[in-house]
């Protein structure tokens, strides 16, 4: 099965993200707004049991940290993806780094740019319009993150949560 | 916030349910296929912390149990809802009963009929067609349930998992 690991911000932040996603993100219906901390990977049942144990260890040694969003940014010209830029606080970067240690399948393929996607697969014109109108907008979001989730993907592309890992618990 | 408590069956069962839901269930995009074990309720932050503690106690004393599906059924004429009928094994019924004890808001409003919705809000003609063609179909699904999930609802009607509760863990 395909798995991924993500953080869901508070309902308030998810509602803000969805107000854009419903118009600009074709994946709107497949998963709630999230910060991916480990990209999709394959694992069988025995592997996932080991991975769950390692995720518990990692969660146990992680402390709650702030999720801070000030502005929108874009991956253009690599992809026409517009996102809420999540500040790369040390705890978040360390957490994601740990999910690429040698107990996990898949190495990191891109530098970690923490973000909540609000638009993707946009045409270049759409991208210019959306990013042009949002890039001047100041956000003042500060949330506390105290857990992450392991998800698996269904055949229709949507994601179901397999397990929640709360920080400080093992 | 609005919360609900549900069981997600295995990916295989979810994929089967989605093959019908995509055509017949307008809630297809709002939540993966699931068995609701406590209907939507309101709780504030302090209440939900107490509820989470109680859910841990309940999970700790629950043992994994089978989820068995043999056939499709319908709530017609009450509502034009078609569902995979989940056999009401004792552990499942007991688990749902505990979620209506006096530590939780909301009393049970209907008898507990465990099910995975695959079609709803159908016109009477659609309902006759869909249920007519599915009611003779024999399913032979047996799955093991070892966890349940507390979810909350976003403004767009979709659901995000707040926490997973694994049986036998507290």
From TrEMBL, chains A, B:
Top-rank taxon, per record: Bacteria
Keyword ATP-binding belongs to the record: no
Record keyword Cell division present: no
Signal peptide bounds: none
MF terms in GO: hydrolase activity, acting on ester bonds; ligase activity
Gene3D superfamilies in the record: Cyclic phosphodiesterase
Keyword annotations from UniProtKB, A to Z: Hydrolase, Ligase
Motif HXTX 2 mapped to chain: 115-118
Pfam families: 2_5_RNA_ligase2 (PF13563)
EC number(s) recorded for this UniProt protein: 3.1.-.-
Motif annotated as HXTX 1, chain positions: 34-37
Catalytic-site annotation from UniProt: 34 (proton donor), 115 (proton acceptor)
Enzyme class: hydrolase
Family: Belongs to the 2H phosphoesterase superfamily. YjcG family.
PANTHER family hit by this protein: PHOSPHOESTERASE SAOUHSC_00951-RELATED, PHOSPHOESTERASE YJCG-RELATED
HAMAP family: 2H_phosphoesterase_YjcG (MF_01444)
Listed name of the protein: Putative phosphoesterase SAMN05421676_105276
Organism: Salinibacillus kushneri
């Amino acid at each position: 099965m395909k798995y991924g690991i993500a953080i869901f911000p508070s309902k308030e932040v998810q509602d803000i993200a969805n107000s854009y996603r419903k118009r600009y993100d074709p994946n709107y219906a497949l998963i709630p707004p999230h910060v991916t901390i480990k990209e999709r990977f394959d694992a069988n049942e025995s592997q996932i049991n080991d991975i769950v144990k390692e995720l518990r260890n990692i969660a146990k040694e992680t402390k709650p940290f702030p999720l801070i969003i000030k502005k929108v940014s874009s991956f253009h010209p690599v992809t026409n993806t517009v996102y809420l830029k999540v500040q790369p606080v040390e705890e978040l970067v360390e957490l994601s780094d740990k999910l690429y240690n040698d107990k996990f399948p898949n190495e990191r393929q891109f530098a970690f740019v923490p973000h909540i996607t609000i638009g993707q697969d946009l045409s270049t014109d759409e991208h210019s319009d959306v990013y042009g109108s949002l890039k001047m907008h100041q956000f003042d979001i500060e949330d506390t993150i105290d857990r992450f989730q392991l998800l698996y993907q269904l055949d229709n592309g949507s994601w179901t949560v397999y397990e929640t890992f709360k920080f400080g618990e093992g």
